[in-house]
Amino acid sequence: MKPGPFDYVAPATRQEALAALAVAPEGTRVLAGGQSLVLEMNQRAARPHRLVDINNIAGFDRLDVDRADEDGGWLRVGALVRHRAFEQPVEGGPLGRLLARTAHFIAHPPVRTRGTLLGSLAYAHPTGEWPTLAVTLGAELVLVSADGTRTLDAESFLIGPFTTALRPGELLEEARFPLLRPTTGVAFVELRRTAASFAHLSAATALSVEDGIVVDVRLGMAGIAPQPVRARDAEHRLVGRPPTERAIAEAAAAAAAGVAEPPADPHSGSVYRRHAARVLAERALVRTCQDISDDVERP
Fold it and tell me: What is the tens place of the pLDDT at every residue in 128-171?
């Protein structure tokens, strides 16, 4: 099929883009990578009256580290940073490793070359890789419009399948991922039907160990709820303990049990999803501990 009729605007500056979004905001959509939006328009699942193409705007491809101090800071990702930018570590620590490992799960090379990280967040697929990682790490998202700027954490932004807190006329301008401690191990694992399909379930982890004791852990899951979730009960079970096989198994079981009723689909029921979630959570945590050992051994 072909898309329905629409107006097309290609602003050259940020101010022009915000002004364009303020015109009939209810029927206006932003075009960055277009890997999901254009497909939906061709299928007429989406019928915007107006497209605002932001690809000509300088500065929207920002990708840099804002280091507040020796242990803290953010990786700042602009609205036009493509998936492909993360295929190699963009930061020298564990965050860079985690982003690179996650990027390779996204679709296939042509999509990664054109699609954007922020576009994936705005699309809000319930098992999308970047939404899962943003929730896991507690990323901050900057939303701008002609009326001003507001900042939301990823959990507040992603409110349901294909549903976000974006208001009409707003643009998701930047994502800020917190830098991770140097002692952090990371992992991202998925279960999916084909190499290029969206995940059935996934788990992302970042775990820091000092003197043999877990001092910080983040475990995010997708596919067991309408949107990605943090498994906070599982995290609490690990902090203050050595990351033994028993502790990891208990945390994984808590992660799977923490959702009231995992959604069923034509391929699997809730019981299977809960079991698979436990397996993936345990696998991710084990790989995270292995990543810590590997990092210690690196010259």
Answer: 999 999 999 999 999 999 999 999 999 999 999 999 999 999 99
Structure tokens at 290: 């292995």
Under 8 Å between Cβ of 164 and 124: yes
The residue to which tokens 């009939």 are assigned: 24
**pTM score, whole prediction:** 0.93
How many CB atoms are closer than 10 A to CB 158?
28
> Is 2 in a helix, a strand, or coil?
coil
Strand partners, 141: 152, 175
For residue 289, which of 181, 186, 137 has the smallest C-alpha distance? Answer: 186
pLDDT in tens, 258-282: 877 777 777 778 888 899 999 999 9
Distance CA 205, CA 213 (A): 16
Q: Cα–Cα distances in Å, from 222 out to 92, 112, 129, 161, 189?
A: 27, 20, 9, 11, 11
Q: Which amino acid is at 39?
A: L
What's the sign of the alpha-carbon dihedral 85, 79, 159, 195?
Answer: negative
So what's the pLDDT on residue 299? 37
| First-to-final CA distance of the chain | 55
